[in-house]
Each structure stands twice: as structure tokens, then as C-alpha cells.
Design brief:
homodimer, 879 residues, alpha/beta, 35 helices
Amino acid sequence: MSNKKYVYMFTETDETMKNLCGGKGANLGGMTKLGLPIPQGFTVTTEACTLYYENGGKLTKEVIDEIETAFAKLEKITGKEFGNPQNPLLVSVRSGARVSMPGMMDTILNLGLNEIVVAGLAEITQNPRFAYDSYRRFIQMYSDVVMGLSKARFEEIIDEMKREKGIEFDTEFNAHDFQEMIAKFKTFYKKELGKNFPDQPKDQLFGAINAVFQSWENPRANYYRKINDIPSNWGTAVNVQSMVYGNMGDTSGTGVAFTRNPATGENKLYGEFLMNAQGEDVVAGVRTPAPIAKLNEILPDAYHQFVEVSQKLEQHFKDMQDIEFTIENGKLYLLQTRNGKRTAQAALRIAVDMFESGMITKEQAIMLVGPNQLDTLLHPQFDQKVLKTAKKIGEGLPASPGAACGKVVFDVDTAIALVKKGEKVVLVRLETSPEDIEGMHVSEGFLTARGGMTSHAAVVARGMGKCCVSGCKGLIINEEKKEFTLGGQRFTEGDFIALDGSTGIVYGQKVPTVAATISGDFEKFMNWCNEIKTLKVRTNADTPKDARQGRAFGAEGIGLCRTEHMFFETTRIKAMREMIVADSVEERRRALDKLLPMQRSDFEGIFEAMDPYSVTIRYLDPPLHEFLPTDPADIQEIADELGISYDKLSAKITSLHEFNPMMGHRGCRLSVSYPELAEMQTRAVIEAYINVKKRNPNYAAEPEIMIPLVGDVKEFKYVKNIVVKTADEIIAQSGMTIHYQVGTMIEIPRAALLADEIAQEADFFSFGTNDLTQMTFGFSRDDSAVFLGHYYEKRVYEFDPFAKLDQHGVGKLVSMASKLGRGANEHLHLGVCGEHGGEPSSVEFFHNVGLDYVSCSPFRVPIARLAAAQAAVKAKKNK
Amino acid sequence: MSNKKYVYMFTETDETMKNLCGGKGANLGGMTKLGLPIPQGFTVTTEACTLYYENGGKLTKEVIDEIETAFAKLEKITGKEFGNPQNPLLVSVRSGARVSMPGMMDTILNLGLNEIVVAGLAEITQNPRFAYDSYRRFIQMYSDVVMGLSKARFEEIIDEMKREKGIEFDTEFNAHDFQEMIAKFKTFYKKELGKNFPDQPKDQLFGAINAVFQSWENPRANYYRKINDIPSNWGTAVNVQSMVYGNMGDTSGTGVAFTRNPATGENKLYGEFLMNAQGEDVVAGVRTPAPIAKLNEILPDAYHQFVEVSQKLEQHFKDMQDIEFTIENGKLYLLQTRNGKRTAQAALRIAVDMFESGMITKEQAIMLVGPNQLDTLLHPQFDQKVLKTAKKIGEGLPASPGAACGKVVFDVDTAIALVKKGEKVVLVRLETSPEDIEGMHVSEGFLTARGGMTSHAAVVARGMGKCCVSGCKGLIINEEKKEFTLGGQRFTEGDFIALDGSTGIVYGQKVPTVAATISGDFEKFMNWCNEIKTLKVRTNADTPKDARQGRAFGAEGIGLCRTEHMFFETTRIKAMREMIVADSVEERRRALDKLLPMQRSDFEGIFEAMDPYSVTIRYLDPPLHEFLPTDPADIQEIADELGISYDKLSAKITSLHEFNPMMGHRGCRLSVSYPELAEMQTRAVIEAYINVKKRNPNYAAEPEIMIPLVGDVKEFKYVKNIVVKTADEIIAQSGMTIHYQVGTMIEIPRAALLADEIAQEADFFSFGTNDLTQMTFGFSRDDSAVFLGHYYEKRVYEFDPFAKLDQHGVGKLVSMASKLGRGANEHLHLGVCGEHGGEPSSVEFFHNVGLDYVSCSPFRVPIARLAAAQAAVKAKKNK
């Protein structure tokens, strides 16, 4: 038996105990400490929930005993007694997890009633209507939440009675009606379950606590956790609280209010209430509640008290509060307070207002906005009015946010042709490939049948800031016939569809978009982030356009410039292909010579766009076969272009086939095989830099040359030697003093394990966490979508390690390599490029590991900046 | 400047200093200490060689100074003086690496001669013929070795002079002839190199030392190192030794002898000598040398002295010696001794004889046989007489040893048909695949155009003990036409070829084989290994036949029983395919029910064959698409068989396509998706075990169930729960007391990193070093052959990490996981399965890391046993 304490009275807790007591329980404790009017009670901890599941879905003896003890104390505090008709203690039983999961968990009110107690309650309150109303509510809730009987069946009974009695609202029922209703409910209960509704208050109590713990695993809760990355082992707490009644008559009521407007952030109480009502009535929409300001007219004392209390709570919690209250016979009680959910716009305004009013510090202000929330501010959005009635035809993964609407196209050529005519297009594909890059550039967004959140389409989309819905369920594409079916509807080329990249929903019609506006608050807020964060944020950019976009969003350099994307353009791919099919070093050099001026001019453009910041250029990375066609007609065309036979080209393509291209001839392995490739790329980088430097001698940032896929220091050294020899010759000829850096990606587990050796030769490391995740887990991101679904379902993994860094496993390698690397080379510069660099929890990890920068796609730069600032604040706090 | 000493006199060294002074130098020191007649000299260390290369291929000042000092000492010891015609010191300069690299390094004799010194030498020896013979030899050797002039050109000059003078042998030249020859040599030298032959002895000396260091990197040396796994950073030492002369007349001579017969191991002096000869004459084949026993007739004193010395050396070095000697005017000198190279048969006999004569201990005896040598004793071999004249048509990688001869076939069906007719066949393929397994079983051996030492064909071949030559250069196969060309010759189905799996050579004709004999010495020797080793050796076996073969070779259990190979058999693959295309759990269960009795009976056979040893059974591992056809005709046939449409099957196959199958839906991921698979396999294992146990209640070894490809403890636990639930039910029904173990492969880097967590749930770990190597390096074994060739060439990697464990990188993970695992679970049983378990250097590493067992293919079991015993001896010594 452990020494853990599983049950706490509200008087024993406060808001710092959220992990143990859940948000609701902890805040009830906090409010009790503040001296606010709180109906007293106790909290059964989240650890009791975990224990419950470990115990096979049953409460343990020790937890039962603690609950009994706490209940006895509660009887003493309230001076009431459970099951005593002369002075009955009634309670509510509510769930309360660490973070608010609205609507997920089920609540039971008025627990403790039975035929005897309800009669007593009617007598002592002199309010039989209230008493029987409470009892019928309790039966309804208990039957639904604890016993799983359908709510609708009870509503049917009520509706039938309304028809019989010719009344419209619940409030028109009298005590007799409710007694009749109670009898009907009980009959129904017995018929359905074959036993009587429980009479013993203690049986009711433990039944309800069990039900709350059970509800932690209900499908809604699981779904909410999945989409919000909440681990299932957190568990929920249970709050048992003595009842107060908003349904005692015309001076009673219940309501919900936000201390500020959650949609706009305006600093004005925002909420609603309902008189003579209990619990769910406000949100259930049975009667229409009144705006909170109206309360001033009905019960001015209670209203003023509430305004005062709400300001006090906001001051205390330093955040906008979402408060539930009940007024019992004119007296105000608070049932719950929590930090209110809000839109991104509201979050920014509240943070800025609270700082400017002196309520909070800048550090506190930046903690008030969720980094991922910013995403909605950065992409164009659909017109919500049209969207409400738009025809939803399917749903896929929300792979890249934004709103895209255009004509359906199935191939790159048509996309380009239509765009040239001024049309907007949406590219629909089984999956995209690097050859589609031009078509993707001109499209509004991409819809794919295959692939996950990190498929080619998704990665490119986020990089370009385009909208993408990937892995769309039920999407059947016939690319040959240029048609697809989805949601039972057939679409052909030219039909309009619309994609919502933030929800993954596909609409089968035209939906207009509106441009996102970035308010002044946003800029102000982002500047605070820069003041606070220590981690630099760079952007991944392959073109001057992307580079400028990244800078506009505050990037402090380029952390990853992929050189291969440059080679896919129509004018260049021919020389690239010549290079690949070359039979000798001489032939290869000839082809590379054609690529040199193009690549050099790309780099010039990028250096100029980023001046005065650093640019990290990664050398050719993908397997060469990606540049070659697979379709016989295409092969013939290219063979003709290159002036070689079909058979020769076909044989070359076959010889480049790989069983596992991800683990094949790519990255620095290409330069070990063909050193002339690294020579050409070095020449392009250094000559471009010299040209830019000639035009602007003040450009001081050194070019950073990055060798990908290194697994051994000798391998790195081999390629580095080629780079240094080539670069030094060019620099010597230029007569200028030029410094440059040569570093490597750490993306192969072996490189991480032996990072100390590599660090002795490298100027910098950039963690390529995409590949590192693939190799460390041993599954490829393109193939794992098939089975990761089963893994999430069965709770083996709880999140996608390609979207969110696996800090436990992959993170161990990152941390190990950082320590080994810095230990061997104190000047080593450490960064991360790839998708994780723009994901908030990963950014926090990278901050804590001590990296110098993260790099992410332009549209995630603001998110990374905020995440980095929050990480700095948290780290300071934890010191 | 370092404090290292780079030059040692022979009087300062002994045989323990091999790493520093090379084998030759260290042994010359050792012999000096023993008081044997050694011409004195000094050794420039291997570290000086490394420094030489670090210094850009030049001797450093400090090394030059040390050589000068040592040389002065040598002059003092010998009482002779360099360049002094009255009393000239002449020296030999020889290479000498840590391990003997016969024929790799070049030797220079008679260094220190010039026109003046040679005249003096002629005078003081009163032997002008000897003096001028020595000088012309020196010029020849120096020109070749130091200056790179072709030996053949000098031989031409000599041959021309022989023709002119009408003589047959060198011994017929007189002093005048040699003077004429010297003049011709010098003229030729000047003509070729544009400068005079060096006259200054010191210039000659440093030129020679430079040349030795240079020769460390010549192509022959590199090749020898590559095939013998000798790291290039070991370097060579240089030995500078004062000359003695076997060419001083009829009481002088030179020879080479082994203390025992190197072919058979017979304990009898074995060697040959040549009178009035120097250096290379004995082995050069210019004159035919006489057997060593003849020396007794010519110079009995010298002979007896040599016999005595050779016994003393053998006693001293506790090994058969290979000794070079020179007799100068009747006096015996020893120039070198080293452990002699020998055949596997001889090695065994020598080890056994030396132990039985009391000369050495068992521990010493087992160190006298190279583990890989045993390989030649375990496979049938070609008749060497026929082989000498056989037509060699090509060469590939010696992927699996043995000798195979038969008719060429290109497909499995023909192979089976021909074998049924009593023919022997050799399967020739681009590369084999799991579908070929039956055809491979019946073939003598496999020849493939693609794939490395660990390709499918190679792995299967070694597992089956079949011969395989893989990745054969220049092999062009047309499988459709059933023909191939190699070495300019065309072969069609039915033509005979022969493969030597130990050399990789392919012969274009029939070559008969002889069965290998295992002598009594072999058995005795292997029993000693078992007494000494602590590491258990298990075998990988998928069938009762393999299991019996492994036991015959001494396996102590099965470390890896792959269940997938069982499913490829014709009668079973149908049910397997039904399982794969199943649309529902029910359909899948129906197909699995058909597989259950087959799998159960396989396991019964294997348990019975291994009783009383343990069997580790690995659950289904490969991606499912491996079981499905790709050819449209095959797809149609199978669709018909399964009673589904072509389109449905085709769609299923497409949906199973993976971009990187190695990192796809395989291993335990299959059981997470389809728990019924693990259920069926568990049922088969446990029911089979119960059946065997019923027949033999004494069978005590617990069945070991192994879950492959685990990356996280939750994943392992998920599958383990299925296993335990299924197994416990069956056991409970049986009424017997049965224990079983559930463990996992550690083959995913993440599993190694988080091994402590997994160990808390697992009964055992088995390192799957094949996959672990792939993931840790980030290259697949099937694809890496293409670029690893470039890596070896460029010295980035020096060996194939799939053949020999990468102890530095992958080994770091193995070691880390072992420590973490044992730390978390002291009962954890640790082993390794896969190719590395039968590779000696890897076995030593696994012993040192503290594993409990290695497991390898049956034909490597004796090798692993010896390697394990040697590892135990070495570890004891290093304590």
C-alpha cells in the first residue's frame, strides 16, 4: 500500500495543484483560499484515476476509505447529512482533468436524493416544486451518465407530458407534474435495466465517481485528447461539491461569463444567465439565456458582487477567466473558474491589454497566446458566411493550413496552362512527387488520397505556405480519365472544389476566401517574443521569394536551403538528367558545367534576399532516380532530348532503382561517388557569395555549407576536403578575404552516437530530425501512415513523431549528440532544420537542449518565435 | 614535438612489441635476447610511418635524427662504417608490419655500395665476383623499389648478356661480367630517370626508408589489407639490418624453412635452400632450391645448428615458425622468424600435437587456429587437380563458401524439374527473392549479378550451407531468353558452370567436387573450445533439418527460428495470401486457422530436433507484400485460386506497396494491426510445445517467443499481452505446468536507446544486428552495395558493416542497450542473432559486452565456437 493521498478537501488545495487535482479542483481550492463564496467539497485526484485503471477499472479500498473520510468532513463543514430528510446534504459530482476538456466529461447534480429525502427537502425549503424538479433532474443525469441510458428517451417522456398538459416550457411544470415524471422515469429505468433506481445516497455517490473515471476513456474524450495531444495517462480528477440551487425560484439562477470578450478580446464582461434554472440549462438551449448585463436589472447586488469577484479572479489568475456561477435565493456562489478559451485575435489583444494596463509582465503576456493559434492569423481564410451552408464532400488530414479554392486539375501541365489563363486551380493527386513542383507552385492547394501530415505534398505545402489536405479518406482518383469521386459525387477537370487546410474538410463547390489581416497588436507582441527568446529562429527557403517571405515573418537567417528543388525546374532538369546518365567523369563535368551558372545565380538571389543574415546551403540530397522519369513515353522523350537510345536511358533508370531509396544512394554518398558534384556546388556557393560581397562589402555573414546524411567523420572529412580545396582556390583567385563554414546534418543515428568525432571537423551541426526520426524509429514517413493509425487507436503511440519530436527517444539522440559535439568543439554551432523546428513542444525541447537556432518553413516562423520565447520563460521559472 | 621514440635498436626490443616495431622487428629483438646469431640493426617504428603520412609523405626532422643516431650505434656494434671502402657497413632495408603481409612489401639488400665501396669490398673479401654481384643486385632492387623502374627491363639486360656470353645461370657470370652489367644498369637508370644512380650511402638509406613507407600504400598492399581486414592506419615499420652474405661462395647460402609441415601439420622440418645465393633467389625460381634435409650433406654443422635453433624458436614462440636464414662462409645467421602460415588441417594438427606433447596449454592451442580457417573444412571442395586447368570466366563476391557445379538454370521451376530428373543445377539470377526459396533448396549454389555479401542470395546460402557467388562483375543475364554472358562467353540453360564460394571465381565448365573430411583432431579441438568458452553458441534454423545440422556442428539451442520461411512453401502460401487479402478480422481468422496446424507441426519438429535445448521463435517479420505476386499472369492465377477478382487482388497488392519496405509495415507492427496473427502464432508455439512435452516430459527448456522490430515498450507490451493471454488460456486448458518466455529483438535504434524500459517487460533481448546496422548507418543492405564500393576505394569505410559488426557505432548501441537492459532487469537474457553472430571479430565483441549467446547459421557454428573460446582467452589475458 502506498503513502499517497488520493482525496483532498477544497480547503487543502490551490491552483498550483492542477496536475494532481485537475484544473477545476485546483481552482476551487484557490478560490476558497481567496475567501470567495464557494460551495465546499473535495477532490479525488487524477492519480486515483490512474490507479483505478491499473486496478482493472475498480476503485481500490484505500481510495474508497479516503472518500468516506472526506465525505464525513464535508458533512461537518456544511452541517448537513447525507440521506437525512431533515437536513439533507446533496452534492454535485464533476470530472476535472488537468486541462479543460469542455463538453467531454459528464456532470451529475443533486446527488443524494431519494423518495424520503426529496420529501424532506420539499418540506424544509417549503418549495416542493424545486425539490421534485431537482430529483427528476438527478434521475435523468444519473441514468444517462452512470447507467448509459439514452438522454433522448427521457426527453421523449417530458415532451409527451408537455403535450398532454399543453405546456411549452419546463418552468411551467408544477411539483405534481414532476412527481408524475419521477414515477415515469423510474418505471422506464426498471424496464430498461431490470432493477430499481438506486435509493442509497452512498451507492449513488460511488456509482457517480466510477462513472466519471469511466468517462475518461469514452470515445469523445479519446478523440479530444488525440487532436489536442493530451496523454491518456494524465487521468481525470473527480470533484464532489455540496449543492447550491439556481432553481429555487425567481431570485435564483445560474450563468456563465468570460471576464473579457473571447472572440475579440475586448475588456468587457461577456456572458449569459438564466433565472430559476440549474446546471446545463444555460448551454442546453431549452430557454434562451439573457446577456450578463441584464442581471444588473434583476439582482443588482448579486451582479455587482459578481463583477467584483470576476475582476478579482482575473487579477489573481492573471488571465481572462471563464466563470460558472449560481445564485441561490439572491446569494452568489461560484462553481468554477478557468482560463477562458479564445480566438487568436482575442488572445493577442488580451495579452497586449493586460501588459499595457500593468496587470502582467511581458513574460506573462507572451504565455497567454498558444503558438499554434497564430497559424490561423497567417493564412487566408474562407468566408465563414458561405462556409456555413457549403457542401462538405469529404475529410482528410489538415496537412497545411489555409483556404484554397479553384478548379480541379490532375496534372502539372494543365495546372500551368489554366493559371496562365488567369484561373485558380487545386491540384488533386494520389500523392505528389518532386516532379510536380512547378505545378504545385501555381496551385492554390493540394488534395491527395495518400500520405500523412509529413508526406511530400504536406511538406511542400507548408514550405510554400499553401493549403493542403492529405490522405483524404474515400477519395478515388482516376488520373488517366481526369476524374475523381468523393462523398458519392464525381468531379472532373475544371469543376470547383475548396479545401480547408486547418480542418481537413473538402467542399464540393466554390467558396470565396478573405485575406488574413495582421493587426498592430500582433507586431507588438512578436517584438516582445524577440526580446525574450534566446533561441534564434531561421527559415527554410529554397528561393529568394521564400527567403523574403521568411524575413517578413521575422526569420533571422536561412537554416536550410535545399539545392535539389532548384534542379526540378524545366530549364534545368535536362542538364541534371545529363549529369545522371553520364558514363564518365568528363561527361558528368560537362553536364555540371551547364548547371553551375544557374545554381550560382540562385544563390546570389538568396544571399541578397537574406543580407545581413546567414544562409545554410545543403548539398544535393535526394536519390538521383527522383530526377528521372518512369513513364515509357517520358523516357523516350528524354532519351531523344539527351541524344541517347531508349534502351540506354531505360537501363540507367533501372540501375538506379533502389529497394529502399530512403536508405540508399543519396546525401553525401553522392559526393563520395561523384566528387565533381560537390565541386560544382562549392563553386556555385562561393562564386555567388563573392559576387554579392563585391556589390555589398558589408555583408558579413559567412556562407554555411551543409553536408547531408553523414554517418562517420571520415565521410564528412572526405567531402569537406573537396569543398575546402575548391573554395580556397576560388577565394585565392578572387584576392578577397572570405570566410565560410562547413558543417553537417545530424540525421543518421550513427552520426549522433559519434558526434564528438564529427564535431572535431565540423563548424556546425544541424539536426535533420525528419530523417533522424525515420531511422531511430525504423519506419519511413511515407509508409508509416498505414499502421500508425492502428498505433494511435490502440494507444501504443499517442502522437505522430514526424509532426512532434519524440523527445524521449529521438530527443535522447539529439541531446547526446549536442553534449558530445559541444564537448569536442566549444565553437560548434547547433541548430535544427525540418518540420520539428516549427512545432511548439519541439521548439521548447530544442531550447532546453541548448541549440542555437531552429529553422522552419516561412509560415511557421512566428509560431517558432513565440514557442522559443515561451520556452525561455518556462526555463527561467524552472531554474 | 612529441616525446615518442621512433627508432629502436634490436637489442632494445622483443616479440611483445609487434604493434610498435612490426612482427619482423619485434621478433629480431626477441631472437637477439635469446642469444641467437642475428645480424644486428634497428627498427623505425610503425608510428613513424603514421607520422610520415600525417606529415604529407615526408620523414620528420625528429625521425631523421633518431635514424642517424641509431645508425651510428650500429656502426659501433658492427665495428664497420658506412661508405668506408676499407671496412664497409652494408645493410638491408625491409618492411615489417604488425602482421605478416607476404609479398606485399619490398626489400632492398646490400645498401651502402657505390663504385668505391664495391672495389674495397672486392679487395677485403678477396672475392670480386661476390662484391660486384652484390652491387648489381643492389642497383636492381633500388631502381625497382625506390625509383619504380620496371624489374623486367633489368632482367632483359641480364638475359641479353646471357645470350651474348652463351651462359644459362647467373652463377656463371664472373666479376667482369657483373662490372659490365653494372655499367649497363647505370646507363639505363640515367636514361630513364635523367640523373645518376645515387652514390651517397646516406641518400640510399633515406631513399630506401621512404620507399618502404610509400609501399604501405601501394595497390597490392591496399588490396591485401582489404581482403584481410587490416586497418590502413596500422602502418609498417622499417628494419635496417647489417648484411650477411649467402653469395660469398660454396660454403655460403640462404634458405627458408618451416618447423612443421604447413600443408599437413606433420612435425618435421620443412623447407629449402640454395647455395651461393642471396635473398630472393630462393623463392624467385631462377635456380631450383634443394630440400632442407640436403643441407645436412653439404654443411652438417650449420644444419645441426639450424635444427637446434628452429626447435628453440618454436619452443620460445609456442608456434610453428617460418624462418629465413643465411650461411656466410659456413656460419649460420637468422634473418627472420615468424609464425608460419598453414592450411586449416595443418593448423588443427599442430595445435593438437603441441598440446599433447605438453608444449602448450589448451588455451594456447585454440589460439593457433583462425576461426575463419575452419570454414574450408565444412564445405565440399573442388578437386584441385582439375581446378588448375579449369576455365575461369568471371569473379564475384565470395558470399558463401563451398564448391558448386551443375547445369545453369534461371528459374525455380526448371531447377526443381531438373533436380527431379537427378541433375545438379546452379541457379543464376539477377538477384534471388524469398519466392525462390524452394528452387534454392534444390540447387547446388547460386550465382547473382547484383547484391553483396549480405544480399538475399548470400544470406540464404550461408543459412543453407550452400555455395554462393554474388554481385558477379560483368555478368549480363537475360532471364527471359534463359541465357547469360560472362567473360565474353554465352551460356544457356543446361550448360555446366562451377562456382567457388571461397574465392568468388566462376568456371565455365564441369569441375568435380570432393567431400570434406572432418578428422578426429577437429572434434578434439572443438571440445576444447567448449571447455574454454563462456559464450553459448546457438544456431539459426527454420526447419528440423537445419536444426539437426546446427546440432551436429555443436549448437546449444536455436537463437532464431524465422517463421516466415515456413509460409513460402507451395502448400501454405495460398492460405497466407488469403490471410493477406482478407477484408475483415473474421476472414483473416479463417485463413489463419488453415495455417495453424501447419505451423504447429513445424514447431513440433523443431522442438523435437533441439531437445533438450532452447528454441527462440521469432514472429512473422517481413512486409506482407513479399508474399504476393507482381506478374499479371501470377496475379490472375492467384485471384482465381482465391476466388476473388483480378482487380480486387491487384488493388490489394497496390495498397501494400511501400516506398521503403525495410522501414514499413513489418515485424511486430503486423501484430499491432492484426492481433489475430500473434494469437495464431502463439497457439502454434504453445500447442506444439505441449505436444512435445507430453511425449517427453523431461524436455525442460522453455519456449522463447520473440517479438521483432520493437521500438517502444508500449508496443512490446501490446503484443506481449496478446501472447500471454492466448498462451495462458491454452496452458490452463492443458492442465500442465508450462513456462515460456517472451522477449524481443533489439534492432531498432530507439529500442536500444530505451532498452531499460523494454527490459522491465522482456525476458530476453536478441540483438538483430542486421537491421540495427541498417538503421544506425541509414543505408539498406540491398542498396548500399552500389556506393559502398566507392567508400572502400576512397578509404572512407574499410570493411562491410553487414559482414563485420561496426563496433564503434552500432556496437555503441549494443553495449548501451546491454547495460541499460541488465540495469533494469538482472534476469535479462542477452543474445544476438543474424550474420554477425558467426563472424569472429564480432563474436569477440559480443563476448566482451557480456552477452549470453550468439546465434548463427549452422555452417558457422564451429567458427563461432572457436571465436568465442578465443575471446574468452583474450579477455582473461587482458584482465
